[in-house]
Amino acid sequence: MGEPLLRVEGLRTIFQTSKQVVTAVSGISYSVDAGETVGIVGESGSGKSVSMLAVMRLVPSPAGRITEGRIWFQGRNLLDLNPAEMRAVRGKDIAMIFQDPMTSLNPVLSIGKHLVEPLKLHLGLTTTQAKTRAVELLQMVGIPDAANRLNDYPHQFSGGMRQRVMIALGLSCNPKLLIADEPTTALDVTIQAQIIDLVKRLRREFGMSVIWITHDLGIVAGLVDRVIVMYASHVVETASVDDLYEDPRHPYTLGLLSAIPRLDAAERTRLTPIPGKPPDLSNPPKGCPFAPRCGFSTADCLSEKPTLREVAPGHFSMCHLELSKQAFISLREVRVNA
Amino acid sequence: MSAYLARRLFYSIAVVVGVSVAVFLITHQLGDPVRMLLPLEASEEQYQAARQQLGFNDPILVQFARFSVDAVRGDFGDSLWMDAPALPLVLERLPATFLLAGTSIIIALVLAVPLGIIAALKPRSLLDHVASLTALLGLSIADFWLGLMLIFIFPVSLGLFYTSGYGTWEHLVLPAVTLAARPLGRISQIVRSSVLDELDKNYVTAARARGLSEQATLLGHALRNAAIPIVTLTGFELTRLLAGFTVVVEAVFGWPGVGLLAVDAIERQDLPLLQADVFVVAMIVVVINLLIDLLYGALDPRIRY
Ligand SMILES: Nc1ncnc2c1ncn2[C@@H]1O[C@H](COP(=O)(O)OP(=O)(O)OP(=O)(O)O)[C@@H](O)[C@H]1O
Ligand SMILES: [Mg+2]
Question: Is residue A53 one of the residues assigned to a domain?
């Protein structure tokens, strides 16, 4: 296996206000191979969006800052690029689509203006060429009557259609990596499924890698090859999607999985959300960030922070207890019976 | 767009009707114009005869209809002070008023927009503090005081421009600069805050994520949206300048605008002249507001429908 398309090493991102320093991303490492689709899951506030904005070097400044790490993309550390070089990567090599299609498009510019802009900027097309290409892109993402819609404004599209426009915008310059930050969260369930199918089809056509952020493990099961689980600014587990579902090694992942409704379950068990709240990121605990909520934590867990370790081939977990799912279940039974 | 236009036009007409009613009620009903027309020593019989002759004993609706028809024909009666039809006296002041208000608002805009943008691009920087202080100074300084200071500095001490008068651009400079101070301050504040607001929005992050430069993001995306509150305030400041709030400065610089005319009309109890002045100013305000509404329509596709 050659060099991955994207390799993030020890990335740390903080937000500094007059009162406190919030560590939004605590030295995380991960990689994404060419053609691979990776899901990033985790509760709200776990640092999913910030870690992706960091890859784009778009962390809101001056409060937010990348303080450590390297972001290798096609052999270059993105953190070493000058602003002009970085702009040439954004939208061209790495594209990003956002959670809220209602606010991600400029309300006073037509859809055509949106689409033409990056095509002229990155691919050097003329306005006429760019308009032709824009219509093709809209057709590709399934906008009916695309040719007549270039002059329409964002408010004339439904939420699902706007997200399709955002996808067309993201794919306009054939990026090698598409980062999708909860692109379906704001949409109806049926529209969600359509958007996911669309991305599945397009990533094959474009041969690109995809990073798909979500806080719903259930949605992405059929979409992603590998999953990165984030908790309180850390990557706590990463594995292929099958390994993760079948053999979760981190207690937090197990908790997330048991919060997914299972259609095939013999009896419809009640969802069991993980009790408690994530730690305060301006004052993180000394030990494992999950220990205060973990049903299995020991004295060690509270005093010493575990590192992300390979627990099986290609399967990493940040936990002192090298437990398997079976062990979790029997441990839980012991406690319940006690 | 045409439905939007029709709606705005309808509102404008409603405002004109409202203003007419107000002017009519104030001038015909609150005061007693007949007493003011007659010499003090006029007898009760003379007074009653005059009332009858001038139509003040007719039913109020008849009086209003007559007033409206006259107003539409541009007939507000003769000025008592100048003994000439009132409306032309007001209209002949308009070029001076437009010239002064227009120049002031252009000076204000040309300085305020860059000032506000610079402040917004580097919030809490030294440049931002300097710009904010300038804005605060501009909008809080008393205009007559600023006018007097400018007279003291330029014509009196340096021999530049004129202390008062009308006719050349050199007469225009000092009153225009004086009147520009307040809109300059207020507009640069709103430019700063609305640009800051826009730069914080998702579509700006999304535009940056497509590789647009900061300049393209600001000029091509954020500013178009920020323009809406800026246009609102600029329109408000412009109507203020046209509607005679400039009267103190007109007085300081002897500038023959409609504001000064209104004050003269009040001092001389010249009701027809005052009526005509109020009416013209109201029409200007209505027209400016209509133009602003059209500009909104051009700026924001969401309100075109
Ligand atoms: N602009 C900001 N200023 C200060 N702190 C911020 C800012 N943006 C994010 N943070 C902090 O960074 C942490 C991570 O936020 P992030 O948006 O990455 O979470 P997330 O995992 O994407 O959550 P969600 O699922 O809600 O989108 C949060 O605790 C948040 O408080
Ligand atoms: Mg997020």
Answer: yes
Name the nearest CA neighbour of B180 among B146, B221, B227: B146
Tell me if A107 and B302 make a contact (CB, 8 A cut-off): yes
From atom 31 of ligand 1, which residue's Cα is the shortest distance away? A45
Please tell me if residue B295 touches chain A, with a CB cutoff of 8 Å: no
CA atoms within 13 A on the CB side of A217: 26
Number of compact structural domains in chain B: 1
- In the numeric block, the tokens 């609305």 are attached to B194
Q: Is the pLDDT of residue B250 over 80?
A: yes
Q: How far is CA B123 from CA B139, B186, B192, B197, in A?
A: 20, 17, 9, 12
Give the alpha-carbon dihedral of A264, A267, A268, A269, to 10 degrees: -110
How long, in residues, is chain A? 338
The answer, yes or no, to whether residue A269 has pLDDT greater than 70, is no
What is the DSSP secondary-structure string of B69-109? Answer: HHHHTT---B-TTT-SBHHHHHHTTHHHHHHHHHHHHHHHH
Residue where the block lists tokens 């340096």: B158
Q: How far is CA B138 from CA A254, B111, B125, B142, in A?
A: 63, 12, 20, 9
| Record: contact A92-B211, CB cut-off 8 A | yes
CB-CB under 8 Å, B225 with A106: yes
Ligand 1 mean position, distance from CA A290 (Å): 18
Identify the pLDDT of residue A290: 94
For residues B187 and B191, what is the distance between their CA atoms, to the nearest angstrom? 6
Best mutation site among A86, A96, A106 for testing chain B: the one with the most B CBs within 10 Å?
A: A106
Task: Estimate to the nearest angstrom the gap between the alpha carbon of A279 and the chain centroid.
Answer: 21
Residue A327 gets the label, from left (phi > 0), alpha (psi -120 to 50) or beta, of: alpha
- A178 closest CA partner among A199, A164, A195: A199
Q: Which atom of ligand 1 is nearest to the CA of A43?
A: 25
Give the pLDDT score at B187.
Answer: 96
Biggest alpha carbon–alpha carbon distance for chain B: 86
Nearest chain A alpha carbon to B224:
A108
| pTM confidence score | 0.86
Mean pLDDT of B255-282: 89
Residues of B in contact with A90 (CB under 8 A): 208-211
Flag whether residue B210 sits within 8 Å of chain A, measured between CB atoms: yes
Whether residue A145 sits in one domain with residue A79: yes
**Which domain CATH number covers B247?**
1.10.3720.10
Chain A touched by B52 (CB under 8 Å): no
Residue after which a domain boundary falls, among A195, A229, A263: A229
Put residue B256 in one of left, alpha, beta given phi > 0 → left and psi -120 to 50 → alpha.
beta
Could you say which of B211, B224, B302 has the minimum Cβ distance to residue A155?
Answer: B302
Asked if B207 has any chain A CB less than 8 Å from its own CB, the reply is yes
Interface contact A166-B206, CB threshold 8 A: yes
- Position B215 in a domain: yes
Sequence-ordered list of residues with C-beta below 8 angstroms from that of B178, at least 6 positions apart, any chain: B143, B146, B147, B150, B249, B252, B253
State which of A172, A201, A229 marks the end of a domain.
A229
DSSP-assigned states of every residue in B153-198 = IIIIII--S-SS--SSHHHHHHHHHHHHHHHHHHHHHHHHHHHHHH
Tell me which residue has tokens 């002009």: A84
Q: Which two tokens stand for residue B210?
A: 């497509």
Cβ <8 Å between A58 and B208: yes
Average pLDDT of span A85-94: 97
> What is this model's ipTM?
0.90
B305/chain A closest Cα distance in angstroms: 11
Please tell me the predicted confidence (pLDDT) of residue A332. 63
